[in-house]
Every structure is written in C-alpha cells, then in structure tokens.
Amino acid sequence: MSDAPTAIQVEELGKRYRIGAVEEQSDTLASAVARLVRQPIENLKRLRRLTSFDDDEADDIIWALREIDFTVKEGEIVGVIGKNGSGKSTLLKILSHITPPTRGRVTLRGRVSSLLEVGTGFHQELTGRENIYLNGTILGMTKAEIDKKFDEIVDFAGTGTFLDTPVKRYSSGMRVRLAFSVAAHLEPEILLVDEVLAVGDVAFQKKCLSKMSEVVKHQRTVLFVSHNMGVVRNLCPRCILLENGRMVIDGDAETVIGHYLKQAYKDSQDWGLRAWGEEEAPGGDEMRLREIALLADDGEITNVFDIRRPVRVRITYEALRPIEGSRMVMMIATPEGEIAFASIAPQVTRLEPGLYRSTCILPPGLLNQRVYTVRVVSDIPYVRFLLPADQDYLSFHLAGGGQQGARPEDRWPGIVHPELEWQPTETLEPARLVVTTRED
Amino acid sequence: MQPELTILEPPRGWASINLRELWRYRELFLFMVWRDVKTRYVQSVLGIGWAVLQPLITMVVFTVVFGGLARMSSDGVPYAIFSFAGLVPWTYFANSLQTSSSSLVSASALVTKVYFPRLVIPIAPVLAKLVDFAIAFVVLLVMMAVLGIYPTIWVLFVPVLVLMMIVTACGFGMLLTALSAQYRDVKYALTFGVQLLMYAAPVIYPTSKIPEQWLGVYALNPMVGVIEGFRAALLGTRPMPWDLIAYGALPSVLVLVFGALYFRRMERHFADVI
Fold first, then answer.
1. Min CA distance, B26 vs chain A (Å)?
2. DSSP symbols for A175-188
3. What angle do CA A361, A309, A404 make, to 5 degrees?
4. pLDDT per residue over A154-199, tens digit each?
5. ipTM for the whole complex
6. CA distance A373 to B206
7. Beta carbons of B8 and A108 less than 8 Å apart
8. Which of A350, A355, A286 lies closest to A321 in space, CA to CA?
9. How many Å apart are CA A337 and CA A83, to the nearest integer?
10. Which residue in chain B has the smallest CA separation from A17?
C-alpha cells in the first residue's frame, strides 16, 4: 500500500472564519435613536467584514483549522475524529470544494465526491425517481451513468414501490436510504463521508457499512468523519485526531482512538461528579438528587476506569418530607440508550427528611471495554416517580485491556462482558457421549 | 486514464468564468431548470394558469387606470394589447430577477454541502421562467388574432429580442444573487424596486412620450429596446427601434459579463456567509 500513489495531499492547510461580532445594546432612548441612524452603516461594515480579512488578528476571527499536514495514499481509508468544533467538518468542506482554504494547499487526484448529510439535494415535491436523477447530477454524475445504475440504486435503497411518490410523503428513513443509495453509487476515486451512518435503522446501517467496505476494496480512497468510534475502528486502519483545529496525532486507529477517548472523557464536564444546588437539583417536592459521583477503588473521583478494578457509583439524595416505601434504582446504560442492567439499593421503609447516600460497587469482570452512562431513578413502585426516569447523569469509560484470554486492547461484543464460571474442560471418551432426546 | 487533478488554494482576486466546467455540468443545468419548472406550481389550484393570469390581470388594471382614466396614448392600437405586449417581456424580467435573487438563499442547504458550479443557481430560474414567458406569449398572439392585428415581417427578429431579454435577466440575476448572499437587503429592496423600475421602461406608456434629448439615456435600460422592439415587430405600432435596441445591447452584455465575474468572485464565500 505504501507504494500506492498519493490521492490526497494536504499541506499547511488553514481556514479562518469571522464570527459575527456581538451586537451592542442601547440602554437609553437617545442612544436607541442614535443607533437607529448609525446602525445601517455599522451593519454594512459588519456584513462586509464577513468576506474580508484585512486585520489578521482581530478578536472575532477564529481559526477553524491550522497547519494541517497529511497525505492519504490511493486505496487508503482514514478516519477523522475529534470533538465537536475541532475542525473535522471544516476539513471535509475544504476537501469537497465547498469552501476555499485560507492558507495552504490541497491536491486531490481523482474525482471527489462527498456524502455530507445526504439528501440535501432532494426536492420535496419531486418523486423518488426524479430525485434520483436530480441528486445524481448535483453530485456530479451524468444522466447516462444514472440510467445505467438506476435499478441498482433503487434496489439498494429498497424504496421500489414508492418511486413515483413525491419524496415529501416518504418517511425520513426512506429519504435517507434513497439519498445514501444515490451517493453510494457515485464511484468516485475519493470519497468523503461525514456522519451519514448515524441515520437509518440498524439493518440499513449495516448495509451502508458493507457498501463502504466494498468501496474500499475497489481501491478507492475514503476519508471518514465520525463520532462513532466503533464504526471508525471497524472501517479505518488509520485515524487522524483533530483538536481545536490542529492535528494532534495521525496513526493507527487503536492508538488514536484511545488517545481521543481519554482526552474526551478527561475534558468532559462530568468528569465523574455531578452535584446540584438546592434549586436546580433534579426531582420533585419530595425528593431531590444532590450528587452522583464515580470513584475508583482508591477513592479518587474520575470517569476513566481500569477494567480490572471496581467502579463505585455514589448517589447522594435528599428527602424533603417523609417518604414511605420508596426505592432507589441505579441503571447502567450505553450512550445509545440501551440499558445494560438495573440495580436496586437496599430499601429503607421510611425516609425521614434529610440527606441519604447509597453506594453501589460495580465489580471487575462485569462490564465491557466501552462507554457507559449512569441513570438514577427513584419511585414508589406502582405509585409514582420521585426522581425522573430515563435521565443520563454521568458517563464513564472502561479501558485497559483484555480478560479471559482476550488479547490486550481487544473489545468483546456485547454491552457487558461478565466473567462467568465455567466448569473445567473435560476430555470425553466417544462411548460416554449419550444423545438424549426429549420425549413429548 | 490519468485521474483528474484538483488543486485547492486560497483564492485571490477575480476568478475567471470556467466555461469548460459549466459545459461539463450542462445536464445539471437542464435538471435544475426542469426542477424549477416542475415544482413551481405544484399544490396550487390554477397551476400554470398563474403564468397567464399575472400579466392578464395587470393588463386589465392598466387598461382601466392608464388607458381609460388617464387616457394614455398607445401608439394607435387598443391600450389593452399595447400594455400586454409590454407586460409579457416585463413580467418575465421582473419575475426572473425575483426568483433568481432568492435562489441562493433557498439553495443554501445544497451550497453548504455539495460542490457544483454555483452559476447554475441564479441562471436556472431565469431559464425556467421562459416557460411562463412562452405561455404568456401565446396568449398575446391569441389576443392579436382576436383583435385582427397581424405581426410585421420583423416578427422574425423577436428571438433576438428574447435573447437580449434573457441575457439582461441573467446578468442582473447573477449580480443580485451574489449581493443577496451577503446582504439580505437585496430581497426587500427588490420587491418594490422591480415595481419602480417598471416606470423606467415603456410598459404603461409609449417611448414616444420620452423627450428626444433623453432617449439615449433612457434606452440604456436594455428592457426599453426589448419592449419597444416587441411592439414594433408584433403590433406594428412603429418602425423597428434599432437605435433603442443597439443602445440597450451594450449594457445588457456588460451586465452579463460583470454579473458573472462578480458572482464568481463572491461565490467562494457563499458557503461561509449564507
């Protein structure tokens, strides 16, 4: 692969934006009148400034990208990851020719197509068939190419019977499927993808993924921007991490993703603790949640845990009036919203007004290497909720390597990865294999 | 086959009009025009009838107000057909400007997501409006037949006038679209600006009302030559106004070229400012 010619070359790339200046407020009638007169002139200045950058270091200029350098070889598939606002989308916008760079230079060898939020070219009033042609030509296909691939596109989208229905009558899922299908049949030499896989149902997402792998097999170059680390890990052997418009690392996916996750969870607001004042605390006039903390076994509050050590979830709440028959439930869920399990704190028959604390210990050998969220619910069974349900308060990340024979860094499938008891492996003599059938 | 090479660099100064690229995207042009035509009147009761009604009702009002009350002269033909012959090209021009200048804002989702030659955006609606124009033109011919007015030999020159009309509309369309991306004022100014501009063209009055010494300046508005040419060729109200057409042709082409260049210069910022 290293001998392959360069498909994308990015040199010293920079992009700056001017963010609209804060509008000034007038607090007196006189200044309001003065502003009325002055404002058109100031508006003109402000609007003109949106496209001129004479004063380079003005305070309303932000660099969305700065000094980006990398090359992608033909047939390579590279993931671009980073937090919101790190410059990922700006990078794709420059590469797909939508917005020009401010500094530097990009050289692209081959036809470039981008899947940036597919379906934007759709016209609500036109039918599926008409939109396939319209969208196809917008994306750079010729009519002859679309004619040739029409059946394939329809087939892949699975919207056959609705071909002559206006797209506005489509479900959003159908619309996305059709749009992706058009885009996926472009056959460009370089494909830029931004988050498209976040849409559609699971079955369709799978289809998209396999289509993507197929694209790569055809020696096409793909740059893939996503928040979904699982997908990035599956698709991209190489990753680039952006942070505040700069490239932090460029390397193999595991290293880069690991770096990203650590950074992301260290930086996130809930770094393992959430506490509320009396006023904003979640709950009603009977019970309020006051604090949730995640602690490592050395007592340190954190949200990145070693998979071989226990995780303590400490819940502090306040009863505002006497409560009978309540229970406190902690749930561990995935960021996608699937609940791994729920666990009930030891019940107290009657809570007198005051502060309470329950701590749950999640033992090692239960959870998987991934991100989890913590939910806390309290209710009086079959009567009412005391704390709102379905609320994710905190998230944490388990990392740090294999168990049960897995290679280090391997992630097992499944939401949890419990260590279960197995009987010792036996050696069987053929004669001892008795086949029993159920008789009924 | 050698893969095509694209180099993206910070833009500087004026960009050229990339005709090769426009040609490569000619099918997109057709599809965009077709989309505009197809979707314009969906979910409206009268549908394409609006293309006829708009100039027709305006004509009735003008005939009552200017022809009837104000006794405006109409170069010897009934005022109704006189004003309608002016309204057909003028309505085209006015509507083209309006749809063209708002085209970019309504295509903003596209502009921020996909690359294609941006010039398609303001030009496609101008071309799509030709369908309305054609229908109104047929109505004009029907009215002439009913009134027993026959076109002169110069009707053969009408396609050239139509071309001049399209060129003018495209030029102003591109110019206003580029401006409207950054200044939404264009939209508000245009709504009544177009109405005012009508008085700078011989729609409700004949050019014979304009003082001789101002005629040269007056005819710099390309629509003057177009409208008077229409009347001369179709209604025979006067000899062909070659001078007016010639005066208008130059600004018309200038606006087209400048509009395209200005649009190209501004288009690089579209994705960032709309």
1. 9
2. HHHHHHHHHHT---
3. 115
4. 888 887 778 888 888 888 778 878 888 887 787 788 888 876 555 5
5. 0.79
6. 77
7. yes
8. A286
9. 20
10. B272
